[in-house]
Write a structure and sequence with these properties.
The chain is mainly α. It has nine helices and three strands. The N terminus is likely disordered.
Length: about 250
């Protein structure tokens, strides 16, 4: 489900915030290593990093609740997730700050993993492995839709739609898809779980309050800067007019 987004002119800068940058680097690096290992050496060095519910519950492999976020099942999978992370995560990190952004990202990912474990144990196959950062990514999409509801995104690169409606659509797709068969390795349950945990975190008002505070402060600083520039330009113009008037008088 690729998409793009309209942003105000001048939004993008040459510097990418650190959390998004290193998440992109780490995910892409691990994908490349895994790809060549599987296709050339015929072995997967990261097999124990994918989320397998039975291993978490029976062997205590709790790290899988985090490590599975850095593995992906194919080129399309990682391209979608990394593009979405870049497109929506950059603005969220700049508004929230790196620490709050990473906390939200990983809590959504871990929460999505817990949902996968519960659903696979109760109704699916606990031996099915799940991998991908989609749970955390869908948490970011939810945050963007709630915090910037009237921003316009391009759904499937074609249809302009407000962010709040886009989130409702992908949420409905994740919800309906969660009733399908498990075992694909990229679970709709993880998508839905990431959104649910993201919603709970935002409703706790910690990231949301910080976002609003930082955004309002930034807006006030921008307004103050613009007003100062206007007053400065006005003073220069008045000086120029007075000088022109004196020159005409002396002539």
């Amino acid at each position: 489900m690729p998409y793009a987004q309209y942003r105000p002119a001048g939004y993008y800068t040459s510097r990418m915030p650190p959390a998004v940058k290193w998440l992109l680097i780490s995910n892409i690096t691990l994908f490349i290593v895994q790809f060549f290992s599987v296709n050339l050496a015929r072995r997967d060095p990261f097999a124990l990093l994918a989320l397998a519910p039975w291993q978490v519950l029976e062997r205590g492999y709790l790290w899988q609740l985090v490590s599975y976020l850095f593995l992906h099942g194919g080129l399309t999978h990682i391209l979608f997730n990394m593009f979405t992370l870049w497109m929506f995560g950059v603005e969220l990190e700049r508004d929230w700050g790196t620490r709050a952004f990473l906390k939200y990202y990983f809590l959504c990912g871990v929460g999505a993993g817990l949902c996968v474990i519960v659903v696979n144990v109760l109704w699916g196959d606990p031996y099915t492995r799940t991998l991908g950062s989609s749970g955390a990514i869908y948490g970011l999409l939810l945050a963007y839709g709630l915090l910037y509801p009237d921003r316009t995104v391009l759904f499937s690169f074609l249809f302009p739609i407000k962010a709040k409606y886009f989130v409702l659509i992908i949420g409905a797709i994740a919800f309906l898809g969660s009733f399908g068969a498990a075992g694909s390795g990229i679970s709709h349950v993880a998508h839905l779980g990431g959104m649910l945990f993201g919603y709970a975190l935002l409703k706790s008002r910690r990231p949301a309050r910080r976002l609003r505070t930082r955004s309002s402060l930034a807006a006030r600083l921008r307004d103050a800067w613009k007003q100062w520039k206007i007053r400065r330009a006005r003073r220069k113009f008045e000086v120029y007019l007075r000088k022109q008037g004196r020159d005409r008088w002396t002539q």
